[in-house]
Amino acid sequence: MRSALMAALLLSAVLSASAALSLTMEQAVTLGLENNMELKAKQAELGKAEAEVIGAAEIPNPSFQYGYESLKNREYEIDRSETFTVSQSIDFLWKRGKRVEAAEKSREARDLLLRHETSGVAVQIRQTYGKVLLLEENSRQLSELAASFSEVVRIVQARVAEGDAAEGELLKLGVERGKLQRTVAAAKAEALSERRKLGLLIVRDINEVVLTDSLTFTPLRADARQLLEQSWEHRSDIVGQLRLTEAAAAAVSAAKRDGLPAIAVEAGYKRQSGGFSGMIFGVSVPLPFWNQNRSAIAKAEAGREQQHHAAQLARKTAQIEVLTQFDKAAGLSERVGEMLRQLESAQTVSQTVSRGARLAYEEGASTLIELLDAVRFEKDLVMEYNSSLHEYRSTVFDLERTAGSVLTVREENRQ
Question: Of 129, 318, 408, 411, whose CB has the highest number of CB atoms within 10 Å?
Protein backbone atom coordinates (compact mmCIF):
# COMPACT_ATOMS: atom_id res chain seq x y z
CA MET A 1 0.00 0.00 0.00
CA ARG A 2 2.81 2.38 0.93
CA SER A 3 4.66 1.56 -2.31
CA ALA A 4 1.54 2.28 -4.37
CA LEU A 5 1.08 5.61 -2.59
CA MET A 6 4.70 6.61 -3.21
CA ALA A 7 4.39 5.64 -6.88
CA ALA A 8 1.23 7.74 -7.22
CA LEU A 9 2.90 10.76 -5.62
CA LEU A 10 5.95 10.35 -7.86
CA LEU A 11 3.76 10.07 -10.96
CA SER A 12 1.84 13.19 -9.93
CA ALA A 13 5.07 15.13 -9.51
CA VAL A 14 6.32 14.00 -12.92
CA LEU A 15 3.04 14.98 -14.60
CA SER A 16 3.06 18.38 -12.90
CA ALA A 17 6.62 19.01 -14.04
CA SER A 18 5.82 18.00 -17.60
CA ALA A 19 2.72 20.23 -17.61
CA ALA A 20 4.79 23.33 -16.74
CA LEU A 21 5.61 25.58 -19.69
CA SER A 22 9.27 26.57 -19.94
CA LEU A 23 9.61 30.04 -21.44
CA THR A 24 12.58 32.11 -22.49
CA MET A 25 12.09 35.85 -22.61
CA GLU A 26 11.60 35.90 -26.39
CA GLN A 27 9.17 32.98 -26.22
CA ALA A 28 7.19 34.93 -23.64
CA VAL A 29 7.16 37.93 -26.00
CA THR A 30 5.92 35.78 -28.88
CA LEU A 31 3.23 34.22 -26.70
CA GLY A 32 2.13 37.57 -25.33
CA LEU A 33 1.85 39.19 -28.76
CA GLU A 34 -0.09 36.22 -30.14
CA ASN A 35 -2.62 36.36 -27.29
CA ASN A 36 -2.98 40.13 -26.91
CA MET A 37 -6.64 40.88 -27.61
CA GLU A 38 -6.13 44.62 -28.02
CA LEU A 39 -3.48 44.09 -30.71
CA LYS A 40 -5.71 41.53 -32.43
CA ALA A 41 -8.55 44.05 -32.50
CA LYS A 42 -6.31 46.72 -33.99
CA GLN A 43 -4.94 44.23 -36.51
CA ALA A 44 -8.51 43.46 -37.56
CA GLU A 45 -9.15 47.20 -37.82
CA LEU A 46 -6.50 47.35 -40.54
CA GLY A 47 -9.10 45.60 -42.69
CA LYS A 48 -10.91 48.95 -42.84
CA ALA A 49 -7.84 50.53 -44.40
CA GLU A 50 -7.72 47.73 -46.96
CA ALA A 51 -11.39 48.34 -47.69
CA GLU A 52 -10.62 52.02 -48.29
CA VAL A 53 -8.01 51.01 -50.88
CA ILE A 54 -10.55 48.77 -52.60
CA GLY A 55 -13.13 51.55 -52.54
CA ALA A 56 -10.69 54.08 -53.99
CA ALA A 57 -9.84 51.70 -56.85
CA GLU A 58 -13.45 51.04 -57.84
CA ILE A 59 -14.63 52.30 -61.22
CA PRO A 60 -18.10 53.91 -61.34
CA ASN A 61 -20.77 51.68 -62.81
CA PRO A 62 -22.07 52.53 -66.28
CA SER A 63 -25.63 53.81 -66.63
CA PHE A 64 -28.26 52.43 -69.00
CA GLN A 65 -31.05 54.69 -70.22
CA TYR A 66 -34.14 53.85 -72.23
CA GLY A 67 -36.34 56.54 -73.72
CA TYR A 68 -39.63 56.41 -75.60
CA GLU A 69 -41.28 59.35 -77.36
CA SER A 70 -44.66 59.53 -79.07
CA LEU A 71 -45.42 62.88 -80.73
CA LYS A 72 -48.52 64.00 -82.68
CA ASN A 73 -49.09 66.95 -84.95
CA ARG A 74 -52.38 68.67 -85.84
CA GLU A 75 -53.04 66.17 -88.57
CA TYR A 76 -52.77 63.42 -85.93
CA GLU A 77 -49.67 62.04 -87.50
CA ILE A 78 -47.67 60.15 -84.92
CA ASP A 79 -43.90 60.19 -84.69
CA ARG A 80 -42.55 57.52 -82.38
CA SER A 81 -38.95 57.02 -81.33
CA GLU A 82 -37.01 54.79 -78.93
CA THR A 83 -33.50 55.27 -77.62
CA PHE A 84 -31.21 52.82 -75.91
CA THR A 85 -28.03 54.36 -74.49
CA VAL A 86 -25.20 53.47 -72.13
CA SER A 87 -23.14 56.20 -70.45
CA GLN A 88 -19.84 55.88 -68.61
CA SER A 89 -17.74 58.51 -66.85
CA ILE A 90 -14.14 58.46 -68.08
CA ASP A 91 -11.23 59.17 -65.70
CA PHE A 92 -9.15 61.17 -68.16
CA LEU A 93 -7.37 63.04 -65.34
CA TRP A 94 -6.40 59.87 -63.42
CA LYS A 95 -8.32 60.93 -60.32
CA ARG A 96 -8.81 57.34 -59.27
CA GLY A 97 -5.04 56.74 -59.30
CA LYS A 98 -4.42 59.56 -56.83
CA ARG A 99 -7.21 58.36 -54.54
CA VAL A 100 -5.71 54.85 -54.60
CA GLU A 101 -2.25 56.25 -53.84
CA ALA A 102 -3.57 58.18 -50.84
CA ALA A 103 -5.46 55.14 -49.51
CA GLU A 104 -2.45 52.82 -49.95
CA LYS A 105 -0.11 55.24 -48.17
CA SER A 106 -2.63 55.58 -45.34
CA ARG A 107 -2.95 51.80 -45.04
CA GLU A 108 0.83 51.37 -44.92
CA ALA A 109 1.09 54.11 -42.27
CA ARG A 110 -1.50 52.43 -40.05
CA ASP A 111 0.35 49.13 -40.33
CA LEU A 112 3.65 50.79 -39.35
CA LEU A 113 2.08 52.60 -36.40
CA LEU A 114 0.58 49.32 -35.20
CA ARG A 115 4.03 47.71 -35.43
CA HIS A 116 5.41 50.46 -33.20
CA GLU A 117 2.63 49.90 -30.70
CA THR A 118 3.32 46.15 -30.84
CA SER A 119 6.99 46.78 -30.10
CA GLY A 120 5.90 48.72 -27.01
CA VAL A 121 3.96 45.70 -25.75
CA ALA A 122 7.02 43.51 -26.44
CA VAL A 123 9.21 45.86 -24.37
CA GLN A 124 6.69 45.74 -21.53
CA ILE A 125 6.77 41.92 -21.55
CA ARG A 126 10.60 41.86 -21.59
CA GLN A 127 10.84 44.33 -18.74
CA THR A 128 8.26 42.45 -16.67
CA TYR A 129 10.00 39.13 -17.36
CA GLY A 130 13.30 40.69 -16.26
CA LYS A 131 11.74 42.15 -13.12
CA VAL A 132 10.39 38.73 -12.16
CA LEU A 133 13.91 37.34 -12.54
CA LEU A 134 15.27 40.19 -10.40
CA LEU A 135 12.72 39.82 -7.61
CA GLU A 136 12.97 36.03 -7.48
CA GLU A 137 16.78 36.18 -7.41
CA ASN A 138 16.75 38.81 -4.66
CA SER A 139 14.20 36.74 -2.75
CA ARG A 140 16.54 33.76 -3.00
CA GLN A 141 19.51 35.82 -1.80
CA LEU A 142 17.50 37.13 1.15
CA SER A 143 16.34 33.62 2.03
CA GLU A 144 19.95 32.43 2.04
CA LEU A 145 20.87 35.38 4.23
CA ALA A 146 18.05 34.49 6.63
CA ALA A 147 19.30 30.92 6.74
CA SER A 148 22.82 32.12 7.59
CA PHE A 149 21.44 33.85 10.68
CA SER A 150 21.19 30.46 12.40
CA GLU A 151 24.99 30.37 12.55
CA VAL A 152 25.04 33.92 13.95
CA VAL A 153 22.46 32.91 16.58
CA ARG A 154 24.64 29.96 17.62
CA ILE A 155 27.69 32.21 18.03
CA VAL A 156 25.80 34.83 20.05
CA GLN A 157 24.18 32.21 22.28
CA ALA A 158 27.61 30.67 22.95
CA ARG A 159 29.06 34.04 23.97
CA VAL A 160 26.07 34.84 26.17
CA ALA A 161 26.37 31.43 27.86
CA GLU A 162 30.05 32.10 28.55
CA GLY A 163 29.25 35.55 29.91
CA ASP A 164 31.22 37.29 27.16
CA ALA A 165 28.13 38.98 25.72
CA ALA A 166 25.03 40.53 27.20
CA GLU A 167 21.48 39.31 26.73
CA GLY A 168 20.86 42.55 24.89
CA GLU A 169 22.81 41.26 21.93
CA LEU A 170 20.35 38.41 21.55
CA LEU A 171 17.55 40.98 21.60
CA LYS A 172 19.34 43.02 18.92
CA LEU A 173 19.77 39.88 16.87
CA GLY A 174 16.07 39.09 17.26
CA VAL A 175 15.17 42.55 15.98
CA GLU A 176 17.51 42.17 13.00
CA ARG A 177 16.19 38.71 12.29
CA GLY A 178 12.59 39.96 12.40
CA LYS A 179 13.43 42.76 9.97
CA LEU A 180 15.04 40.30 7.60
CA GLN A 181 12.11 37.89 7.77
CA ARG A 182 9.70 40.72 6.94
CA THR A 183 11.95 41.76 4.06
CA VAL A 184 11.99 38.19 2.74
CA ALA A 185 8.19 37.98 2.94
CA ALA A 186 7.81 41.32 1.17
CA ALA A 187 10.25 40.26 -1.57
CA LYS A 188 8.37 37.02 -2.16
CA ALA A 189 5.03 38.84 -2.29
CA GLU A 190 6.39 41.39 -4.77
CA ALA A 191 7.86 38.62 -6.93
CA LEU A 192 4.49 36.82 -6.95
CA SER A 193 2.69 40.05 -7.86
CA GLU A 194 5.05 40.67 -10.77
CA ARG A 195 4.63 37.05 -11.89
CA ARG A 196 0.88 37.55 -12.01
CA LYS A 197 1.38 40.70 -14.07
CA LEU A 198 3.51 38.69 -16.50
CA GLY A 199 0.79 36.05 -16.62
CA LEU A 200 -1.73 38.70 -17.66
CA LEU A 201 0.59 39.96 -20.38
CA ILE A 202 1.15 36.51 -21.91
CA VAL A 203 -2.40 35.32 -21.11
CA ARG A 204 -1.22 32.23 -19.23
CA ASP A 205 -1.70 30.77 -15.79
CA ILE A 206 1.54 31.90 -14.20
CA ASN A 207 1.67 28.74 -12.04
CA GLU A 208 2.15 26.74 -15.26
CA VAL A 209 5.15 28.81 -16.41
CA VAL A 210 8.84 28.27 -15.67
CA LEU A 211 11.13 31.16 -16.62
CA THR A 212 14.34 29.74 -18.06
CA ASP A 213 16.32 32.92 -18.78
CA SER A 214 18.64 34.53 -16.29
CA LEU A 215 19.89 38.03 -15.57
CA THR A 216 22.90 38.38 -17.87
CA PHE A 217 25.03 41.39 -18.67
CA THR A 218 25.93 42.41 -22.22
CA PRO A 219 27.92 45.68 -22.37
CA LEU A 220 26.47 48.41 -24.56
CA ARG A 221 28.37 48.63 -27.83
CA ALA A 222 26.69 51.27 -29.97
CA ASP A 223 27.17 54.78 -31.29
CA ALA A 224 24.58 57.42 -30.43
CA ARG A 225 24.73 59.17 -33.81
CA GLN A 226 24.39 55.89 -35.68
CA LEU A 227 21.42 54.88 -33.53
CA LEU A 228 19.78 58.24 -34.21
CA GLU A 229 20.15 57.81 -37.97
CA GLN A 230 18.77 54.27 -37.71
CA SER A 231 15.75 55.54 -35.78
CA TRP A 232 14.97 58.07 -38.51
CA GLU A 233 15.26 55.39 -41.19
CA HIS A 234 13.80 52.29 -39.51
CA ARG A 235 11.66 53.32 -36.54
CA SER A 236 8.17 52.26 -37.54
CA ASP A 237 6.27 55.21 -36.10
CA ILE A 238 8.55 57.75 -37.84
CA VAL A 239 8.32 55.91 -41.17
CA GLY A 240 4.57 55.60 -40.61
CA GLN A 241 4.28 59.35 -40.04
CA LEU A 242 6.18 59.96 -43.29
CA ARG A 243 3.68 57.70 -45.08
CA LEU A 244 0.84 59.75 -43.61
CA THR A 245 2.49 62.90 -44.99
CA GLU A 246 2.75 61.28 -48.42
CA ALA A 247 -0.88 60.15 -48.18
CA ALA A 248 -1.93 63.72 -47.33
CA ALA A 249 -0.02 65.06 -50.34
CA ALA A 250 -1.75 62.52 -52.60
CA ALA A 251 -5.10 63.52 -51.08
CA VAL A 252 -4.43 67.18 -52.00
CA SER A 253 -3.68 66.18 -55.59
CA ALA A 254 -6.84 64.04 -55.72
CA ALA A 255 -8.96 66.90 -54.32
CA LYS A 256 -7.63 69.31 -56.94
CA ARG A 257 -8.38 66.86 -59.74
CA ASP A 258 -11.87 66.28 -58.34
CA GLY A 259 -12.48 70.00 -58.86
CA LEU A 260 -12.05 69.58 -62.61
CA PRO A 261 -14.96 68.42 -64.80
CA ALA A 262 -15.65 64.70 -64.97
CA ILE A 263 -16.38 63.77 -68.58
CA ALA A 264 -19.07 61.19 -69.27
CA VAL A 265 -19.38 59.48 -72.67
CA GLU A 266 -22.74 58.23 -73.92
CA ALA A 267 -23.40 55.85 -76.82
CA GLY A 268 -26.45 53.95 -77.99
CA TYR A 269 -29.07 53.23 -80.61
CA LYS A 270 -32.13 55.18 -81.72
CA ARG A 271 -35.10 53.93 -83.69
CA GLN A 272 -37.64 56.37 -85.14
CA SER A 273 -40.83 56.29 -87.21
CA GLY A 274 -40.40 56.32 -90.92
CA GLY A 275 -37.71 53.70 -90.79
CA PHE A 276 -35.09 56.01 -89.39
CA SER A 277 -32.63 54.31 -87.02
CA GLY A 278 -28.98 54.40 -86.13
CA MET A 279 -26.25 54.88 -83.57
CA ILE A 280 -26.11 57.92 -81.34
CA PHE A 281 -23.16 59.37 -79.41
CA GLY A 282 -22.88 62.11 -76.82
CA VAL A 283 -20.52 63.71 -74.33
CA SER A 284 -21.45 65.26 -70.98
CA VAL A 285 -19.13 67.83 -69.42
CA PRO A 286 -20.14 69.60 -66.16
CA LEU A 287 -19.34 73.32 -66.22
CA PRO A 288 -17.28 74.22 -63.11
CA PHE A 289 -18.89 77.60 -62.53
CA TRP A 290 -20.00 77.33 -58.90
CA ASN A 291 -18.48 74.18 -57.41
CA GLN A 292 -14.73 73.80 -57.90
CA ASN A 293 -14.21 71.57 -54.84
CA ARG A 294 -12.48 74.43 -53.03
CA SER A 295 -13.62 73.29 -49.58
CA ALA A 296 -12.20 69.77 -50.03
CA ILE A 297 -8.95 71.20 -51.43
CA ALA A 298 -8.52 73.55 -48.46
CA LYS A 299 -9.25 70.72 -46.02
CA ALA A 300 -6.75 68.42 -47.75
CA GLU A 301 -4.05 71.11 -47.74
CA ALA A 302 -4.59 71.71 -44.02
CA GLY A 303 -4.27 67.97 -43.43
CA ARG A 304 -1.04 67.88 -45.41
CA GLU A 305 0.39 70.75 -43.36
CA GLN A 306 -0.63 69.01 -40.14
CA GLN A 307 1.02 65.73 -41.13
CA HIS A 308 4.18 67.58 -42.21
CA HIS A 309 4.54 69.19 -38.78
CA ALA A 310 3.74 65.86 -37.08
CA ALA A 311 6.56 64.19 -39.05
CA GLN A 312 9.03 66.89 -37.99
CA LEU A 313 7.90 66.54 -34.37
CA ALA A 314 8.35 62.75 -34.54
CA ARG A 315 11.96 63.16 -35.71
CA LYS A 316 12.77 65.68 -32.99
CA THR A 317 11.11 63.51 -30.34
CA ALA A 318 13.12 60.50 -31.53
CA GLN A 319 16.33 62.52 -31.32
CA ILE A 320 15.66 63.48 -27.70
CA GLU A 321 14.59 59.95 -26.74
CA VAL A 322 17.53 58.21 -28.41
CA LEU A 323 20.19 60.52 -26.97
CA THR A 324 18.63 60.54 -23.48
CA GLN A 325 18.20 56.78 -23.30
CA PHE A 326 21.62 56.16 -24.83
CA ASP A 327 23.32 58.32 -22.20
CA LYS A 328 21.41 56.53 -19.44
CA ALA A 329 22.19 53.07 -20.87
CA ALA A 330 25.88 53.93 -21.37
CA GLY A 331 26.19 55.13 -17.78
CA LEU A 332 24.43 52.05 -16.43
CA SER A 333 26.55 49.77 -18.62
CA GLU A 334 29.73 51.22 -17.15
CA ARG A 335 28.35 51.05 -13.62
CA VAL A 336 27.11 47.46 -13.94
CA GLY A 337 30.41 46.38 -15.49
CA GLU A 338 32.32 47.87 -12.57
CA MET A 339 29.95 46.25 -10.06
CA LEU A 340 30.39 42.90 -11.81
CA ARG A 341 34.16 43.15 -11.39
CA GLN A 342 33.70 44.08 -7.73
CA LEU A 343 31.31 41.18 -7.25
CA GLU A 344 33.74 38.69 -8.77
CA SER A 345 36.44 39.94 -6.41
CA ALA A 346 34.06 39.95 -3.44
CA GLN A 347 32.96 36.37 -4.04
CA THR A 348 36.55 35.18 -3.69
CA VAL A 349 37.04 36.90 -0.33
CA SER A 350 33.54 36.87 1.15
CA GLN A 351 33.94 33.51 2.87
CA THR A 352 37.27 34.63 4.33
CA VAL A 353 35.75 37.92 5.51
CA SER A 354 32.75 36.15 7.04
CA ARG A 355 34.93 33.54 8.76
CA GLY A 356 37.27 36.23 10.09
CA ALA A 357 34.33 38.25 11.42
CA ARG A 358 32.96 35.21 13.25
CA LEU A 359 36.34 34.49 14.86
CA ALA A 360 36.81 38.14 15.80
CA TYR A 361 33.35 38.27 17.40
CA GLU A 362 33.92 35.01 19.28
CA GLU A 363 37.15 36.48 20.66
CA GLY A 364 35.45 39.76 21.55
CA ALA A 365 37.46 41.73 19.00
CA SER A 366 34.41 42.96 17.07
CA THR A 367 30.79 43.90 17.72
CA LEU A 368 27.57 42.16 16.72
CA ILE A 369 26.88 44.88 14.14
CA GLU A 370 30.26 44.22 12.50
CA LEU A 371 29.47 40.50 12.40
CA LEU A 372 26.06 41.11 10.80
CA ASP A 373 27.63 43.47 8.26
CA ALA A 374 30.12 40.76 7.32
CA VAL A 375 27.32 38.22 6.91
CA ARG A 376 25.33 40.63 4.72
CA PHE A 377 28.35 41.82 2.75
CA GLU A 378 28.15 39.61 -0.34
CA LYS A 379 24.35 39.35 -0.43
CA ASP A 380 23.92 43.14 -0.36
CA LEU A 381 26.41 43.52 -3.19
CA VAL A 382 24.68 40.82 -5.25
CA MET A 383 21.26 42.39 -4.81
CA GLU A 384 22.56 45.87 -5.63
CA TYR A 385 24.19 44.44 -8.75
CA ASN A 386 20.99 42.65 -9.76
CA SER A 387 18.91 45.80 -9.34
CA SER A 388 21.34 47.87 -11.41
CA LEU A 389 21.50 45.13 -14.05
CA HIS A 390 17.71 45.03 -14.32
CA GLU A 391 17.56 48.82 -14.67
CA TYR A 392 20.24 48.65 -17.38
CA ARG A 393 18.47 45.90 -19.30
CA SER A 394 15.13 47.73 -19.09
CA THR A 395 16.77 50.89 -20.41
CA VAL A 396 18.35 48.96 -23.30
CA PHE A 397 14.95 47.47 -24.19
CA ASP A 398 13.52 51.00 -24.33
CA LEU A 399 16.50 52.17 -26.39
CA GLU A 400 16.02 49.30 -28.84
CA ARG A 401 12.44 50.39 -29.48
CA THR A 402 13.40 54.06 -29.65
CA ALA A 403 16.24 53.41 -32.11
CA GLY A 404 14.40 50.75 -34.09
CA SER A 405 17.28 48.25 -33.81
CA VAL A 406 18.32 45.26 -31.70
CA LEU A 407 21.21 45.90 -29.30
CA THR A 408 21.07 42.91 -26.93
CA VAL A 409 22.02 39.26 -27.34
CA ARG A 410 18.90 37.16 -26.87
CA GLU A 411 19.19 34.19 -24.54
CA GLU A 412 18.37 31.55 -27.19
CA ASN A 413 21.13 32.92 -29.45
CA ARG A 414 23.85 32.40 -26.88
CA GLN A 415 26.37 29.67 -27.59
Answer: 129
